[in-house]
Write a structure and sequence with these properties.
- The complex is a heterodimer of chains A (324) and B (385).
- Helices cover 36% and strands 21% of the residues of chain A.
- Chain A is an alpha/beta fold and 324 residues long.
- Chain A folds into 2 domains: 182 residues, Rossmann fold, CATH 3.40.50.970; 128 residues, Rossmann fold (3-Layer(aba) Sandwich), CATH 3.40.50.
- The model of chain A has no long low-confidence stretch (mean pLDDT 98).
- With 385 residues, chain B is α/β, with parallel strands linked by helices.
- Chain B has 2 domains: 320 residues, Thiamin diphosphate (ThDP)-binding fold, Pyr/PP domains (Rossmann fold), CATH 3.40.50; 45 residues, no CATH class.
- In chain B, helix 2 packs parallel to helix 13, helix 3 packs parallel to helix 10 and helix 5 crosses helix 13.
- Chain B is globular.
- Chain B starts with a helix and ends with a helix.
């Protein structure tokens, strides 16, 4: 057991991935000597060389487009997009090329590409550094999408993602990079595509992922002081979703609240609400509620505490659901 | 914008191929072999005859594609008419180890790389999205988003650098693509990493309706210099010159000297695709000018005038073209429609429970009609299917 921050756990996971498969490459802006702006690739260029940990020109479409070619040549690229809001220059390559290649080739071409994206707000940043664009990618057939919420999942899920033969967008909760926990580096606790019941409860279900998992756990702890037992489901995989775990929880509690930072309109939370309604209709005692960002561009950082779902907004939604 | 500036004739400022020493030509439109200071080609008469055969067969594949579209057998066809020498010259310069990344018009390169033209037609017929195995042929999937494949080729070349292969990548694209960000990023990356790649631009003068002067105010091959690698302009209708410059560029890439740009100066004699109407934007007189530079006629003139090939040879090539055309027609018409549930295949290498669910739903829905043959046979039933 080692105590690691989430960022360091990713770093150790990437190190393992590089050690385990000589075809694994890391590429991105400032990932080499600097170790990435969040130091997630710290020390990797020094230990694995500049041919495997590649500082790229500042061109996101180039990062993804060349990763496609490297994958066709038999490599397994792990691309870092420096911040969520910078993925859009690469959006065309991701959506029209990465997502389509296996289908276009009738299964002849595999693109085992990992696209790492630090996402979400709460770090007091300027524009384009706090967004939650996961719905765009979950909406795109041909991509898989995952996100970690704690150091254990960071360490294992990044390795499982790199080993996956499909292209995967790996969202990293940037304001949780410094969260610490013990990490068992001997055995993975779960597969990549399973959701996790992060806290068991009976009175309502919070369905959440990424940076909002901690928020929901804190809300559940506060609710427990008032005698309410809230279950928290950490999705982990955003596409495909482990529906069985979600539905089992909602059928038990009868109340579902989806919590995420992204604007709720046409969001992953919207899809979850629709699916839960369709599959758990006779178990629900209240409509599925969503707590998330508002329908505005991510606001200036002095406003983000009012924008992001926090403990109070989550508990307010729990109250509304149970009182329905 | 003035009326005059909307007229393509305004673009008489089009960068023209230099008549000077930089423009590489080894066989004139009249069929005369000429020398070039920087590029020579050691080639036998038989090899030139083989190139002639390639050119004729590729043109025939293309003609069949257009005809099959007109007969309703293809939804669309993107003709390469006029660009045969650019594609055969480049295609025949490649070794089995070299990897080509095409647009959607590289039927001639596909032919050189051994892809069955019927497979290509499957894409335009709508029975697949491509479907050939790029690794088997060293020929990537057709790429419809303009310029995307230049980055794939650059990445592939970076892979060659890392696994030590004696190979090069070649990226095909058109004059329109040179305005795309991806192409310019590919140039930056290839230069930065000194990647073993050849950028092969077929400047066919038209990006659908837009003349090349809408994309550039300098000759395209000059772009390379700004990125830090050499560019060369070649007569794209001269198969010998294209073969020579592409061989040289590939050799340069393989020996570790980095990328280069070839501008094959040619002309799109056909519409952009079968859906296009070029009479709306260009003059028929331009076609007459370019017919005089036909890539096949000049080789035929050379072979005939020098007594290298006789009537029997040309008849034999025509017979081979007829045979290939029959194969293309029969193969295309015989391509079966895919089964409905096959649409769910190959989205992921590792599958997806969501797709399993949707496949099951559509399968159940379709099979619910099995007990209603009368409905299925009716026009209304056919529509609802």
């Amino acid at each position: 057991m080692a105590t690691l921050t989430l960022g360091k756990a990713l770093n150790e996971g990437l190190r393992k991935a590089l050690e385990n498969d000589p075809k694994v490459l890391i590429m991105g802006e400032d990932v080499g000597a600097l170790g990435g702006v969040f130091r997630v690739t710290d020390g990797l260029a020094k230990d694995f060389g500049e041919d495997r940990v590649i500082d790229t020109p500042l061109a996101e479409s180039g990062i993804i487009g060349t990763a496609v070619g490297l994958a066709i040549r038999g490599f397994r690229p792990v691309c870092e997009i420096q911040f969520d809001g910078f993925v859009f220059p690469a959006f065309d390559q991701i959506v029209t090329q990465v997502a389509h290649m296996h289908y276009r080739s009738s299964g002849n071409v595999r693109l085992p590409i990992t696209i790492r994206i630090p996402y979400g707000g709460g770090i007091g940043a300027v524009e384009h550094h706090s967004e939650s664009p996961e719905a765009y990618f979950a909406h795109t057939a041909g991509l898989k999408v995952v996100t970690c919420a704690n150091p254990v999942d960071a360490y294992w899920m990044i390795q499982q993602t790199v080993a996956c033969d499909d292209p995967v967008v790996f969202f990293e909760p940037k304001r949780r990079y410094w969260d610490k926990s013990e990490v068992d580096t001997d055995a993975a606790p779960a597969g990549l595509w399973s959701a996790r019941v992060a806290r068991a409860g009976t009175d309502a279900t919070l369905i959440t992922y990424g940076p909002s998992v901690r928020t929901c756990l804190e809300a559940a702890a506060a609710a427990a002081e008032e005698g309410r037992e809230i279950e928290v489901v950490d999705l982990r995989a955003l596409s495909p979703v482990d529906w069985d775990t979600v539905f089992a929880s909602v059928r038990k509690t009868g109340h579902a609240i989806v919590v995420a930072e992204a604007p709720v309109f046409v969001s992953l939370a919207a899809e979850i609400a629709a699916r839960v309604t369709e599959h758990c209709f006779y178990s629900l005692e209240s409509p599925v509620l969503r707590v998330g960002g508002f329908s505005i561009p991510y606001p200036a950082s002095r406003l983000e505490e009012d924008y992001l779902p926090d403990l109070d907004r989550v508990l307010d939604a729990v109250d509304r659901a149970i009182a329905f | 914008m003035t009326e005059a500036s909307r007229n393509p004739r305004e673009y008489a400022l089009l960068p023209q191929p230099s008549e000077g020493p930089e423009f590489v030509q080894l066989l004139t439109p009249e069929g005369e072999r000429v020398e070039h200071a920087d590029y020579s080609l050691d080639i036998s008469d038989d090899e030139i005859k083989d190139l002639y055969r390639d050119l004729v067969l590729v043109r025939r594949i293309d003609a069949e594609g257009t005809a099959l579209q007109r007969q309703g057998q293809l939804g669309l066809w993107a003709s390469l008419l006029g660009q045969e020498a650019a594609q055969v010259g480049a295609g025949r310069a490649l070794t089995d180890k070299d990897f080509a990344f095409p647009t959607y018009r590289e039927h001639g390169v596909a032919y050189c790389k051994g892809v069955d033209p019927v497979t290509l037609l499957g894409l335009f017929r709508g029975v697949s999205q491509g479907g050939w195995d790029p690794a088997e042929h060293g020929f990537g999937l057709y790429t419809i988003v303009i310029g995307s494949q230049t980055l794939h080729a650059t990445g592939y070349a970076m892979g060659i650098q890392r696994d030590g292969g004696d190979a090069a990548a070649i990226a095909f694209f058109g004059d329109g693509a040179t305005s795309q960000g991806d192409v310019n990023e590919a140039f930056v990356w290839a230069a930065s990493f000194n990647a073993p790649i050849v950028f092969f631009c077929q400047n066919n003068q038209w990006a659908i309706s837009e003349p090349v002067a809408r994309q550039t105010r300098i000759a395209l091959y000059h772009r390379a210099e700004g990125f830090g690698f050499p560019g060369v302009q070649v007569d794209g209708n001269d198969v010998l010159a294209v073969l020579a410059v592409t061989r040289a560029a590939l050799a340069r890439a393989r020996e570790g000297s980095g990328p280069s740009l070839i501008e094959a100066y040619t002309y799109r004699m056909a519409p952009h695709t079968t859906s296009d109407d070029p009479t709306r934007y260009r003059l028929a007189a331009d076609l007459e000018t370019w017919k005089l530079k036909d890539p096949i006629e000049r080789v035929k003139a050379y072979l005939s005038r020098n007594g290298i090939a006789d009537a029997a040879f040309f008849a034999d090539v025509e017979a081979a073209a007829d045979e290939l055309a029959a194969h293309v027609r029969e193969g295309c018409i015989g391509l079966p429609n895919p089964e409905p549930l096959s649409m769910f295949d190959h989205v992921y290498a590792g599958g997806s429970p969501l797709l399993d669910e949707e496949r099951g739903q559509l399968g159940s829905f379709l099979s619910s009609f099995e007990d209603e043959p009368a409905l299925l046979d009716s026009p209304a039933g056919a529509v609802s299917r």
